[in-house]
Amino acid sequence: MELVTIVTMLAIIEAAIFGLQAGLARAKGGVQAPAITGDELFERRFRVHYNTIEQLIVFIPALWAFGHYVGQYWAAGLGAVFLVGRIVYAVSYVKDPATRGLGFAMSSLPSFVMAVGALIAATISLFAG
Asked: 2-123 has which fold?
């Protein structure tokens, strides 16, 4: 499960980088904590970071279960799509939030596929004996 571990750590690092970008945008825009509004660039960076954290709640357990029951290579491949999707999402959301759809789909669909796939594989494993 080394590949699943690597993808997980990359996802966590990616989220941390998005958090750092939000923090830098907060400082540059002069948005004092605890405020989360007041500068459009900060608000966009904040939403990218927060949405990524929301996605990780589904992605990480789905990745691990899918890696266990289906295979780490398939899980890592779908995980790579997720990671790239988060970058596409971040770049497009900061540029123009209306264009975030592709990045959102690229990161949501792999998680859904892995969650459903892991559920099916675990159920088959349970009844197979």
From this structure: Four Helix Bundle (Hemerythrin (Met), subunit A) (1.20.120)
How far apart, in whole angstroms, are the C-alpha atoms of residue 52 and residue 38? 21
Among residues of the chain, what percentage have pLDDT more than 90? 99
Note if the pTM is more than 0.70: yes
**Do residues 14 and 20 make contact, with C-beta atoms less than 8 angstroms apart?**
no
Distances (CA, A) of 21 to 18, 24, 41, 78, 94: 5, 5, 10, 25, 11
- Nearest Cα residue to 119 out of 66, 63, 74: 66
**CA-CA distance, 61 to 116, in Å (whole number)?**
12
Structure-token match 């830098």, residue found: 24
Neighbours of 57 (CB within 10 A): 10
